[in-house]
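Entry 14. Structure prediction run on the chain below.
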Amino acid sequence: MEAMCEDLRTDLGTRPAAILARHGLRVVNFNDLTEEDARCPHIAATRETVAKVNAWAHPIHEPERPNEYLPGQQLLGNGGGAVKGGRLNPNELYTVCEVGVRLTVTNVDGKEFSPTMAQATKFLRRPYCTTNHAVQGLSLGNRIFIHEVDHHMADHRWVRTAVSRCSTLDIILVRHPARARAPFDINNRLASHYRADMNHGFAVTVRDYVSAEWVRTQLERQGCACAQCGEDLGDSSSGWWSIDRISNQMGHTEANCRLVCHVKVSPQCQAVTAKMRD
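Output returned:
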């Protein structure tokens, strides 16, 4: 493990997947995973894959009561929101204590929260598969499955963090079938912002306006992470980002903008942004 992590730290000219292969890690196809595999921890690079793996693993874990919560069950914060007892936070681990009209859960510090069932469905999810961010500092056991090591987000640091969650070298890499993606045109999005600014009567100077090159540069400056919550934004062609204006009294100029999660992806991020504006 130490040798592999050292290679991931120093051999930045070699792709992380190639370094893992050099150390003999096994690769399997997602469609070949077994019920036994579903009972091991899984880590993925994107929310889409996290949701896919959780949808596959959940009925295996709970075949008789797939939609019910059980005492002792562990759940993960999803988006975050205010409930009775305080606020449930994204990527924070909670344990189910009691199931009734409300769901009673505790966090790792023992603090108790009582969301309604509707709130539990909205703010909590089963953590069979998680993002790297959710498991930093944790040991996940003797065997883990890591998805998407070929994803652009899975750089050397990301992979090093993921593999170090395992207490052994029993780490299995999961390959997913390629998915067709709808084309995304960054210029169409920028043009819509330009039209909106014109309709609002903002003074628009092309020289100071956001551009495709600005988006690519800004992604690099932000480390492909949301300026507000740190979640992955993908690359400039993914469309997974939104251009956020710091001041609503000005248009989409470079000095007035930054890149954040899309509004449908991170409501918490949008709430923080709105609070800052106030």
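The longest strand covers residues 93-99.
Filed with the rest of this week's runs.
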